Amino acid sequence: MERLTDKPAARGVLDRYRDRLPVTNETPMLSLGEGGTPLVSSRRLIERIGCKDLYFKLEMCNPTSSFKDRGMVVAVAKAAEADARAVLCASTGNTSASAAAYAARSGLDAFVLVPHGRVAKGKLAQAVAHGARIFAIRGNFDDALAIARRVSEKHPIALVNSVNPHRIEGQKTAAFEIVDDLGDAPDLLFIPVGNAGNITAYWRGFVEYFQAERASQKPRLIGWQAAGAAPIVRGEPLDDPQTVATAIRIGNPASWEAAVAARDESGGEISAVTDEEILAAYRLLAEEEGIFCEPASAACVAGLLKYAARPEALEGPESLRDQTIVCVITGHGLKDPETALAIEAEVPEVDADLAAVESAMGLA
Ligand code: F0G
């Protein structure tokens, strides 16, 4: 009888991509069924954009509801292989949720440093549920990451931020899946940029598949930072980044240079969108496409709307008309219920009575 663990999604990233990952005979085949996420086509946004094809890579469908699981499964498995007792990360929330889950799965302790008061409630709930030891640092993400790096240098605790090369290795598998699903690489990939590990990982994945002749082209990478947290766009680190998209509230990205290299080698760009643009795209995705993502994820869709409004996107050789575009939807909207409820916090109460409900529905 076929076992559940043999099904592709349940097999997970380590097993499915073992030939392209740092997997040895000693690497534990850790999995929570990460990877194999849906690539769904746009139904309505595509009409506004005017491109040939538009897809959303739903990375929010990973086990802890963000893309982090792809890299975390590799980083935690390699930590376990090296006999680490504990893992440590700094996080705006999603990395810590993922680290906590995979550490629990492996029987390792997890230590998490988050910026005080700035982590979306759902993400904190995940780290709490998995039994991580969480500390709210009186500072921002960049301060927390600097301390996490020092702790891991001084103590035998594995750092599982994306400065750990195993994280980037695991995350590149999302690019493989896009190529496999489309039959080739897309023309353009729109992606939010925070600590800049993910854009780095996608580029590595696309280059690897191109070199292996699994794809005939490489996409242009179009990355998006929040305007109040856009150090790469401005060309200098920021001390006090601010944005509603707390996941990408980062002033000094760890993978800055690799992200700039990915941008330039792909012929792409990294630009900024305002919080207003992010929240408009967040609502549009939920209301018109049925996709409830977190604000940071919506940044790349806000970026696509902005990009598509440029004159060169409408006409001429750079026109989007013949382009296949993928937007990376990095995390689930449920992680940040407060942002959703800020749109409409008041749900009207109605008596438990048919006539009253009909009247409230405007059917009376
Ligand atoms: N989208 C979401 C939902 C994220 O959580 C992050 C990063 C990003 C996009 C940006 O990806 O950092 O690789 O450029 N979250 C990290 C964290 C910083 O701690 O969870 P990136």
Key features?
single chain, 4-stranded parallel sheet, 364 residues, alpha/beta, globular, 6-stranded mixed sheet, binds ligand F0G
Topology summary:
Blueprint: H1 8-16, E1 39-41, H2 45-49, E2 53-58, H3 68-81, E3 86-90, H4 94-106, E4 109-115, H5 121-129, E5 133-137, H6 141-154, E6 158-159, H7 165-171, H8 173-182, E7 188-192, H9 197-211, E8 220-226, H10 231-234, H11 256-265, E9 269-273, H12 275-289, H13 295-308, H14 311-314, E10 324-329, H15 337-343, H16 354-360
Parallel strand pairs: 2-10, 3-4, 3-6, 4-5, 7-8, 7-10, 8-9
Antiparallel strand pairs: 1-2
The protein binds ligand F0G.
Describe the 3D structure.
The structure is a single chain. By secondary structure, the protein is an alpha/beta fold. The protein has 16 helices and ten strands. The strands form two sheets. The protein has a six-stranded mixed β-sheet with strand order 1-2-10-7-8-9, sandwiched between helices. A four-stranded parallel β-sheet has the order 5-4-3-6. α7 packs across α9 and α9 (197-211) packs across α11. The longest helix is centred in the middle third of the chain and has 15 residues, at 197-211. The protein is globular and about 65 Å long. Ligand F0G binds at residues 66, 68, 91-95, 162, 192-198, 247-248, 294, 296-297, 330-331. Ligand F0G binds next to α4, α9 and α13.
Fraction of residues in β-strands: 5-15%
**Sequence of secondary-structure elements:** HEHEHEHEHEHEHHEHEHHEHHHEHH
Low-confidence stretches: none
The small-molecule ligands in this entry are: ligand F0G
Helical stretch tally: 16
Overall pLDDT: 96
- Number of strand elements: 10
Multimerization status: single chain
Q: Major sheet: order of its strands? A: 1-2-10-7-8-9
Distance between the termini: 56 Å
Q: Based on Cα principal axes, name the global outline.
A: globular
Kindly provide the radius of gyration, computed on alpha-carbon positions and rounded to a whole number of angstroms. Answer: 21 Å
> In which range does the helix fraction lie?
40-55%
Q: State the major sheet.
A: 6 strands, mixed
- What structural category arises from helix and sheet content? alpha/beta
